[in-house]
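idk why but the lab printer keeps eating my pages so im just putting this in chat instead. protein + zinc ion:
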Amino acid sequence: MNRTTAAALLLALALDAPAQQAGPSPAARPKVILIIGDGMDQNQITIARNYLVGLNGWLTLDTMPVRSSVQTQTVVEENPTVPEYVPDSANTATSMASGIVTSTGRIGTTAGTDHDVPTIMELAAAAGFGTGIVATSSVTDATPASFVAHVSGRLCEGPRSMVSTNANNTAFSADCSADLKANGGKGSIAEQIAASRIDIVLGGGQRYFAQAAEGETTKTVRDLAVDNGFRVIGTAAELAALKRGGKVLGLFAPGTMPVLWRGTGGAQAQRVLHDENGRVVQPEPFACEPDPAFGAMPTLEAMARAALTHLDDGRSFMLMIESSSVDKQSHARRPCGSIGELKQLDDAVKIALEYAEAHPETLVLVTADHSQAAQLVPERSWLGPNAASPGHFARIRTPEGAIMGVNYATNDSTLQEDHTGADVPLFAHGAAANEVPAQVRQTDIFKIMLRHLRLTPPPPP
Ligand SMILES: [Zn+2]
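predcted complex ->
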């Protein structure tokens, strides 16, 4: 290329504001919207569909043209050649964000060796693309964190929790001393988000950004975010009034955002009792109702819409949207909570599909990170009046006038359920969707997104 041509090209690129992206014309610049339902396995989808649209209805999710199944992969931290069959959100989100298999609790780092691995958000930002992260959990929670941060343990969400004191949390306790800035690390997850190039970050997590930043006497993590160019907002009204341009950090709750729905009066699954004759005393059925705690929270749909508006500036972009509490409510044995969060996801899917219709260069992927505890079971056991679920059981009165049985029986703890290890669904829409194989691994989702965005794969860690 001669100098005149090069100068003309540079000028053309400079005039193409605000894009800093070379390559195809704006209309052809590839975009990816990855929507994750945390814990949204086939049981969760079917339970939610039955409640939300009835046995003869389809969710928006169900109308997506391409359908695949995803195997999750996890390895043991102490010996990464040995598999573990039940994952968590940290290692599965790391597989999707960075294309590697790692151990539970790890965020953007390798099992055993603790090397940082680049995320698709970092690769996209380095190429001049727009980037966005939306979640209904704290933005520092495992799934969103895995797209932007690198720490050895998912609980290292803020500067105050870098060295675990919780010896009981055996699955996830990790010492993040090596990640302290004082030791040459990048700091806590919140500090890494504050230092990041992500264009828009929306969700909960105010408490982590209110903490004093490591090594600072007067500054909080929020202050570091502001220093790095983030405009910080905190209400649905501010989100609705958002002007495009600049970087945005929206924090709408101290931690996880409240959920949309709950069981009537707070009802949830409970242990089944037997009377003196050994007969099952069936728990009273309940319906779902709006959870008053949700209050004036922005919906996931509103956050998804704001993120898409913010990123729609002619550049390619990589946007991750998570409905985080399908999982959290299933841990807590609250079926209506999970159903409401699946509704939130389905409403966000609708927004994403509308965007993709208007921008055909958009690949929309919807998936789960791992399966969960809830099972759709008979509302009365087929084995007669003396048999019942050994775990926690709910009978849900659906709007179409039937009773749906949901049980939780992964453990006998009074605290919460465990995850399960089954394959999870993947739904795809867009031109590149036809290239999605019928059965994939979670690391393939990284490759599919990378290929669509025409980004160069990073070298293996
Ligand atoms: Zn979970």
